[in-house]
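Can anyone check this?
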Amino acid sequence: MIKLFPLLQADALNQGKSIVLDLGEIANLEIDSNEIIQLVLNLTRNGLEAMAQDGCLRIKTFVEKQTVVLSFTDEGTGIITEHISKLGTLFFTTKENGSGLGMPI
């Protein structure tokens, strides 16, 4: 996450927005770093697109009940109820030029 932050922050600043990292102490995990990088990029992009000028995206890691949590919180309007069950569905998008591949990947 630390390695990606300058890239993410530059993208946010270019849009008049900001990103705050709140990285808690977590154990080392055996995960595919390329998949996590893609996930972070996609969720960051979605969060930034959802917010108005001066919005702040908070990326947080923490442990809750022996589970590592990666949390993204933006200041956008939120996801409408009808779309929540469709999140992660291949090719589902609400964006005019979206592919619907960001969340499933």
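Reply from J.R.: I decoded it. The chain has three helices and three strands.
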